[in-house]
Specification:
By secondary structure, the protein is an alpha/beta fold. It has three domains: 64 residues, Archaeosine Trna-guanine Transglycosylase, Chain: A, domain 4; 112 residues, Transcription Regulator spoIIAA; 192 residues, Rossmann fold, CATH 3.40.50. It contains eleven helices and 22 strands. The strands form five sheets. A seven-stranded mixed beta sheet has the order 16-15-14-17-20-22-21, sandwiched between helices. Strands 2-6-5-4-1-3 form a six-stranded mixed beta sheet. It has a five-stranded mixed beta sheet with strand order 7-8-9-10-11. Strand 5 and strand 6 form a beta hairpin. Helix 2 packs across helix 5 and helix 6 runs parallel beside helix 7. The chain is globular and about 65 Å long. The N and C termini lie far apart (62 Å). Bound molecules: S-adenosyl-L-homocysteine (SAH). The site of S-adenosyl-L-homocysteine has 21 residues, from helix 7, strand 15 and helix 9.
Length: 393
Amino acid sequence: MTKITIKKGYSEKIREGFPLLTKEMIQQGNIEQEGKVFTAIDPRGQFLAKGYLGKQNKGSGWLLTWDQNEEIREPLFKNKLEEAVAFRKDFFDDNQTDAFRLFNGEGDGIGGLTIDHYAGHYLFTWYSTGIYQFRDEILSAFEQILSYKSIYEKKRFDSKGQYVEDDDFVKGERPDFPLLVKENGAHFAVYLNDGAMTGVFLDQRNVRKAIRDKYAEGKTVLNTFSYTGAFSVFAALGGATKTTSVDLANRSVPKTIEQFSMNGIDYEAQDILVRDVFRYFNYCVKNEVKFDLVIMDPPSFARSKKHTFSASKDYMNLVKQAIDITEKKGIIVASTNAASFDMKKFRSFIDQAFKEKGARYKIIETFSLPEDFRTTEAYPAGDYLKVCVIQTM
Ligand code: SAH
């Protein structure tokens, strides 16, 4: 078996359960062969943990067991899957929600793999060619535990985590798309064989619910970076007087119309705009357009013709722009999935934005990942979602 010697300081980290192998941790050893099982040892040759090599933007591989006698084979995968299923028992029993994450990478003990459940259909996402080498064993373990209508997969192999275009069908019976899934009683159209994304980001479930149940009634709502308009749908269901969805991508219009229609909402009573959000903010300022509730969930990094947006550098300015177009006593829902900074830092961006605007605010609620997006304390960066509900004053 391949041995990788870990530097002294990092050895302690691994001993405490840190699951990721990165280049700077390595004192000696070859990390070139994707999918290769390795033993991590400390500089004195003592066993630390076992893992597999798989290049991702996050690192070079994942540790899967701290037990010297456990093999990285089907029984290990089966154990981890069984535990993951048991952990989601409440989701399987929930008749209002049938779209959730069944397996969340290192949070469930196998970095580099996620599995999402959509109304009896499953979507596997493989984040490296390394983890893909275990595909047959993992699928076999999965089939021993769960029955399914169909299995699809996404391959996000290269170091940037780009999706590899392919027919993503794996097995079962090909359903007609869109699949109709439920979330807290609302409906979404989902596509499992149509590029990298499925139409809904499951990690925002609790935020959508809060918008519907607590923040939307009687409000004018601006949803920026709206994608398929999932937040707009929940705002409309919660009694918003009108929603405005803004996204740069042309596809967002038919996609948003579809999600509204799935929920019996007249899309013609809503605004769905293909615009650069930054230009739209300027337009609103110029024309004195304001909203009661402004939702912002930008990608952590994006390039448009005029702008490069990076959450870690530019979120503060985004909040400043949102302040300009939010009514007094309004609400700003600020969300980010950037793993490169934590909640404390995120709150400092918000604080600085309000300070620079000379405005006051209160954070009335925060969200991180929902329960099905299980994380481990040993790897805090896995808990990437940060959402602040901000009351302006
Ligand atoms: N908030 C969405 C997910 C956002 S995904 C949801 O809850 O479902 C990020 C979206 O931002 C993509 O649809 C992308 O097209 C859009 N986007 C990226 N840069 C943009 C810009 N400058 N202006 C408007 N939309 C942008």
